[in-house]
Design goal:
Blueprint (H helix, E strand, L loop, with lengths): L3 E7 L5 E8 L3 E2 L37 H7 L3 E2 L5 E4 L8 E7 L2 E3 L11 H6 L5 H4 L2 E3 L20 E3 L22 E3 L11 H8 L5 E2 L2 E2 L2 H32 L1
Parallel strand pairs: 2-6, 3-7, 7-8, 8-9, 9-10, 10-11
Antiparallel strand pairs: 1-2, 4-5, 5-6, 11-12
Helix pairs in contact: 4-5
């Protein structure tokens, strides 16, 4: 369901123009055989509107008055990759302007083994990814860890990493820096075979509501919170014991 925000602004003789902002369709770069994030910049998406994918509404390419060009447009892609649709209206009548902003991207089923350069690559195909990106699908690639590059996108709510090669369960700890993360997938990675996998992830990321496409229950949250507390205490005790043992050897 699209989130719609409304704002109004005066447009002089044209009267009041109502601005509506909603999430647009995802940029789909799945099954593109991408080997690096830099290749996103030169590939065309299967769907969605790439930044610079069309002339800006109100541009004067046709020789018309810019204001008239905008009023006549039923829809189009701006140079920033934001879809704009204007309702038809006569002079002096209210107009509605719908802006569809890209908030999601599909990079699944490629050959990515690192996310190095992801931010600048996304900057080239969508408007303000650091602020706008809320959902990213990186499933079925060749990623071996949860990279710090993902932490740049502070508004991420859904992150799909299933079907990769992530081996270190502790790399999940990095995702604590994504305060809005609600849905995460990690199934199909080597870490899934770890006996403590699910309780560790839920205990570490207390804001999660879904893990591996399965809703996290209240009982799971309570149990994982208790378990992770004990786990941290046990790890701390083991670290202290190792420290004292090394001191004795010296």
């Amino acid at each position: 369901m699209q989130a719609v925000h409304r704002a109004s602004s005066m447009t002089g003789v044209a009267g009041v123009e109502t601005h509506l902002v909603a999430s647009g369709p995802p940029l789909d770069y799945s099954f593109k055989e991408l080997r690096s994030c830099a290749e996103i910049e030169t590939e065309e998406p299967r769907s969605g509107v790439k930044r610079g994918g069309g002339p800006a509404v109100g541009s004067n390419e046709s020789g018309k008055d810019p204001g008239a060009e905008a009023d006549d447009a039923e829809g189009g892609a701006t140079a920033s990759g934001v879809l704009v649709a204007r309702s038809m209206g006569s002079t002096g009548k209210p107009k509605k302007v719908m802006r569809l902003v890209t908030i999601s991207i599909k990079l699944n089923n490629n050959m990515l083994d690192t996310l190095s350069g992801l931010q600048p690559s996304l900057e080239s195909v969508m408007h303000s990814p650091i602020m706008n990106l809320q959902w990213i699908d990186l499933s079925f690639n060749q990623l071996t860890t949860i990279e710090p590059e993902l932490l740049r996108f502070m508004n991420l709510k859904a992150l799909y990493l299933h079907g990769n090669c992530i081996k270190n369960l502790s790399s999940v700890d990095r995702l604590k820096k994504l305060p809005k993360l609600l849905s995460l997938t990690l199934n199909g990675n080597p870490i899934e075979s770890t006996r403590i996998y699910r309780v560790y992830v839920i205990g570490t990321l207390s804001s999660l509501r879904s893990l591996d496409h399965s809703t996290i229950t209240a009982d799971e949250v309570a149990g994982a919170a208790s378990w992770i507390k004990g786990h941290i205490e046990r790890a701390k005790k083991r670290a202290e014991e190792r420290k004292f043992a090394s001191m004795d050897e010296d």
